Amino acid sequence: MSDVAEHFEFGVIQQANIPDCLRIAVANFEAFKQHPDYIQQWFERRVLHNPWQSALPGCGVGVWQNQELIGFRAMFAQPWCLNGQSTVVAFCANTSIEERLRGKGLATKLIEHSRDFAAVTGSTTAGNITQKAYKKLGYAEIGGSDNDFFRLRIGYRGSWQKRAGQTLGGMLGSLFDINLRLRHFKLRSAGFTLEEVLHCDAEFDQLWERAKPGYVSCLERSSQYLNWRLFDYQTCPLRLLALRDSAGVLRAYAIWHQQDFSASVSMAVLRDVFYPLDDEPALRSLFYHLFAYWRENGISWGSLEVASPQLTSLFRSQGYEALSSHGNRYQIYSQQPLADKVLQGWYRSGIDGDYFDYPL
Q1: Which of 62, 215, 331, 343 has a C-alpha 20 to 30 A away from that of 292?
Q2: Residue 129 and residue 8 share a domain
Q3: What is the pTM of this model?
Q4: pLDDT tens profile 203-261
C-alpha cells in the first residue's frame, strides 16, 4: 500500500466533482457506456435532489493523482431510525476507478475512507471480491451469507402461453394455477383489500409512527421519504400496493417492480414490505393479496428481496425457495459499536442503498 500513500491523495468529493465522476463511471463500466443517462440520473436524483444530503460532508470520497480525479465512491444520505433514534445513514454506491490504475488497492482505500463519512455507513453492493476488504476494515455483515432472499412460482399462465399460444395456454395455465391459489389461501384473513397508490399522504406517516417502535433498525418510511424515493425522484420504476382493512385503515404495503424475460414470462421483484411487527394478520394477508394480484396480471415468478428475522421465518415456513447469492451484500460500519440486537434485527429492504437503483 506504499504506492497509494506516496502517489495518491484522498478526500471528499463535492457537487463540482460530479462531472468528473460521470466521466470515470461511463469510461469504466460497460452498462454506463451504453446508457450514460443512468449514472447522470442517479447523481441528480439520489444526491442533488436529496433532502437529507446536507447532513453529509459531501457527495462521497475520491482519489486524485496529480490533481486529477481518477476514482470515487459516491455516498448518499438516507434517513434512518436506529434503536429508537432518528439519524442519517450514508450509503455508498457507484465505486469506480480508472481502469489503468486498478490493482493498486485504491478501491479498498476508498472503502476505508468512506467509513468516516457519517456515524453509520452502509453498502448493499458487496460481492465475493470485496468480502475480505470489508471484514478487514471492520464492517459488520448483516444477515446470512445468502441474504435471506426467496423465490416462488406465482402463476403458470405465461409459461403455458409461451408453449401453447394465448388461448390454449391461458386455459392450461388457469388449471395449473388452482394449486397455487389453494396453497396461498392459508395466508388470507377476511376483510382486507389491496389497491395501488400513486402518492403517499398523512396515513403513511401515521402507519410509520405506529409501527417504528417495533423496529430496532429501519429506514424511515415517512410520506416525505416514500414520495421522494418512489414517485418524485425515482431512478427505477417502482410500484406501491397498499393493504387496507374493512374500515379503510392502512395496515401494510408492498413496493415492487416487474422484470420481463419474454413477451409472456415475467418476474415480480418485491423490494419492500412495511407493517407493524405485531400485526401478523395484515402481513399474511398482504402476501395473499399480493400474490393474487401478480397472478391476475400474468406474472410467472416472484422474488422476495426483503429480509428480517420475522420475514425469513415466514418465508421458510411457507416452503419458498431460498436463493443463494455471491456473498453477503449488506455491510454496515458504525463509529460506535452497535448492539447485537440491532445487528441481528436489522430490517433489510430493496429500497435501502442503491440496490437495483437503475431503470430495468
Answers
A1: 215
A2: yes
A3: 0.91
A4: 999 999 999 999 999 999 999 999 999 999 988 889 999 999 999 999 999 999 999 88
